[in-house]
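yo, Type VI secretion system component TssM1 N-terminal domain-containing protein is done. seq:
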Amino acid sequence: MSFSQKIKKVTYALTSRTAMLVIGFLALSLLIWFGGPLIAIADYVPLQSIAARLFTIILVLLVFSVSKIYRLMQQSKRDEKMADELIDSNSDTNSSEVNEEITTLKTRMNEAIDLLKDVKLFKGKNIYQLPWYIMIGPPGAGKTTVIHNSGLDYPLKDKLGVDLVHGVGGTRNCDWWFTNKAVLIDTAGRYTTQSSHAKHDSRAWEGFLGLLRKYRPLRPINGVMISMGISELMSQTKTERNLHARAIKQRLQELQSQLGMTFPVYVIFSKVDLIEGFREFFGELTEEECEQVWGVTFELDLDKDTQVDAFNKEFHTLISKLTEMLNRRLINERNEEIRAKIFEFPRQLRVLQGVGDAFLKEIFTPNAYEELPMFRGVYLTSATQEGTPSSFLNEANAGESGYINQSKSFFIKNVLEGVIFPEQNLASTNKHHDKQNKWLRVGSISLACIALFGFSTSWYFSFAWNSNLISETEDAIATYQELDTASFDRNNLLV
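structure:
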């Protein structure tokens, strides 16, 4: 991690809501402790004693705590309302079977919310406080398979016997995956392409974004994952690839404009096991090695205009590392057919690099009319090893692999847990919400300034009045002393 990245992470931590509350409480406590004895009303100093100052600090802490509990209760109500509305919206069926399923899903969603609050890791948290990620991509891109085989912990599985909550009605094309570290929203492929029933899909998509904006006004999402299957990407014509890329770009623009924010975007090329040689090349990896990241993560300070160009450079480095591993794999393998596939695998990836570069440029090339998304990285994954691998070096299909191995997930877990989830604070807050808060802050500061001016003015006039009163009293005392002295002198003369 570079020094600038460390500085940014420290800055994110220090400017978080929790950190600001702690710093504010400590500052106020110090002010009460050291400044309290200096505050006096007439001759009475209410915070003179240690007990009085301790009581005041405890009272402030109690107010903070009650305020926090109240916000949590309000958020809990919002979570339940969101669950109902996300499930019910746009439901236009009178089918008793579907209505029964909706009732079951409401119960399951609420149980999921309650469960996440009961899990030890989530004490004091709710689903709003977890990072939320949307996964988009064309149909058959392997979105659900990637999530299902990610190796993440799903608290729902042990208690409810399910990994996810299926949507019905307005969200019947979204699956909600409640993990121990994030909420993953798996959208239907047709929401991305909107090619079959464009008007219906577009309205449903916009309605879904509206609900996210309504119930998560501060930061609706923390990032977007784009899933694209390797076999589909390589088998499509240039026109088909460009259409998919433009549809994805359009969805990203809609997310940015409707949610009023910027967010990190991660591209996942799934089903890389369908590239001939993958299973043979990586078949001997240990479970820990299978969880590592295989892909490209860009530097945070990288210029958005050069991100796609950086992909080519980084991907070339990735292939070079594979080439370094090549000799070891060839030495350990005796089967000639498998050795041939292992040898050709880096060359297969070079073909993918060219196609992937064109696909990414179509999505992330800047123009004057659109705001460029925050492109964070590209990752290669394999959730299950199913189907027939293909060779992209020639037109012939490679046929069945001669390598026997167990189906397991490759290069998914640490992409999510080690790269994507830790960057949850890269997403900006909703600019519309920020604008409202800005005026609220301006109003609060203005009122505070007016109050300070009022108190200062009152103190000044009080001080001036008291000073004048003291001066008049001193003059009166002096006059009285003079009169008393004169009277005493006259009495002495008479004697």
